[in-house]
Amino acid sequence: MNSKSEEIALFVLNISRTVFILAILFVLGAAISDQIILGVLGLFLASVSWITPGILLIIKVPWLAQSWLRGINTNWVPGGPWDGLPNFKRFLVYFYATLLSVFMIAALIEVANQYFR
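The chain above was modelled as a monomer; its predicted structure follows.
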């Protein structure tokens, strides 16, 4: 990867981390203060945070999906440049991104199904 791609990957990682931390803070704030709007905003940000890696895979930028996932949790997503990752670690990035995105889409469909009947 060239330096421009690394800068973009680092920017995506920082955006992902910010979105995820804000989601957690909003949900905690809603639990503490009983403000429903904070909870809704926190759940919206969490949904965006979990769906984005799958969207990045669909538009064929898996190295950005890897960076987004590392912003959420650096422990279970392989690090390092995408070009240097072995095939199994690339598979893990695809697996985690697909799993999170499908899970969140299924949860959103279920919530919509319950509330809009």
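The mean pLDDT is 90.
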